[in-house]
TrEMBL record:
Organism: Asprobacillus argus
InterPro entries cross-referenced by the UniProt entry: ARM-like, ARM-type_fold
Name this polypeptide is given: HEAT repeat domain-containing protein
Amino acid sequence: MEYTEFKEVIVDYLSGNLTEEKHIEFEQFLSENSQHQEEFEASKVFWAGAEEEIPTPTSAMDVKFYTMLNAQEKRTQKESVFKSIETLLFGNFPKQLAYTLAILVAGFFIGNGLNIGNSSAKDSVEIAKKETEKVRSELVLTLLDQPSANKRLQAVNEVGKLNTVTETIIKALFSTLNNDDNVNVRLSAIEALKNYTDIPLVREGLVSSIIHQSSPLVQIELADLMVVLQEKKAVKPLKELIKEKDVNTNAKQKMEESIQSII
């Protein structure tokens, strides 16, 4: 295992999502490269903190992270990088995950030997922004696999804060829409996907998802969305769903109305 892969799978290791082989490989790398132990321990502290409210980060990481930013302040515009990155990391991110995100971004700077002193403030913020986007995406995928419905709901809500959405994220949302056992999570997945209906993969996926739904609330939500999109391909699966046994009367009526509004 190389250092780059080590960094990328820290979150998966801490959340128990690595295969047994990768789990062993990760621990072997860590034992053979003690210089990365501190970075791992820091990530471990903040990941553990994601399970509960964190009043303040640990003093050790507080010093390390903010000292790095303060060094940049003295070399460039006072408070420029500090405030920009602080807002980027903590402005709209849930408190219980904010520190996890912060330490992973800090780890990026430290691990890649980024010389902030020789970089412009703008470049530093752009690099932090890209790394934050990557980490946020990884956290979304990780939280979607959690047994807690609240965690999965949180993950779906975070998708809306991504500047760009990858095919992996889209597929994960559809997996949630079609398989999650919590109705609120499935409804939230639809809300998230509404933002990307200009993407053919999303429109096709929404149409394909219709027949898989058993919840009247989800059926109605999808039927309404098909009317907004005027998606003619949805007529066939809506008709098939109406024929299914035990379809809720209100949902059936809504789907019939939607079909008439589309054709």
